[in-house]
Design brief:
Elements: H1 11-18, H2 29-35
Helix pairs in contact: 1-2
Length: about 50
């Protein structure tokens, strides 16, 4: 089971954290996947 550290935000807010250039703000990535119905978004920054 994955429990995101950061949750409860909007999709746009979570993308703002996950896609940030600042590593300290990237804690929203797991929460973004959860908020997206456990599907990895097409523009997810860690998949090339």
């Amino acid at each position: 089971m994955i429990t995101p550290v950061y949750s409860g935000g909007s999709i746009q807010g979570l993308k703002g954290h996950c896609y940030s250039e600042n590593n300290a703000y990237r804690h929203g990535c797991a929460a973004l996947i959860e908020a997206n119905g456990w599907k990895i978004p097409d523009d997810y920054p860690w998949i090339k």
